[in-house]
Amino acid sequence: MKRQISLATLIAAAALIVGCASPAPADYSAEKPLLDLKTYFNGEFVAHGLFTDRSGKVARRFVVQMTGSWQGKNGTLDERFTYSDGTTERRVWRLTDEGNAQGVAAGNALNWRYTLKLPVDGKVYEVQFDDWMYLMDDRVMLNKAVMSKFGIRLGEVTLSFYKK
Known about the structure:
By secondary structure, the protein is mainly beta.
């Protein structure tokens, strides 16, 4: 009887581990349209988003006016945030195409992980993002990112991009 319980426990644990496996970019390799960051993030676009805390409560809403441009392997993404409380923020990203060195794209999806210096109440915190982008058509991209610190999930950012 003890051997049967151990085997059943082992099978249940294996099923739990497999059920918790994360998706990989390769899972989306057959999806269309193909995501090309240099093409999509070139020009003017707008994003609407929100941040939800660990409990799932919406903690912050925002709109981002964005301009993207590329010269060879180097890109600039200029983001101008307006939050629902009226505060504003600007972030300028400098991107370099290193052949998927920091992020991996396949089909219509991109997964990239990065550390962001996030200003909060006069202090700056380094937080980690596990960021997924999905190109829906030539104008719309959806984005979902999990934010964490020291491996602890702090919340989630959800965005909808629209290319003008």
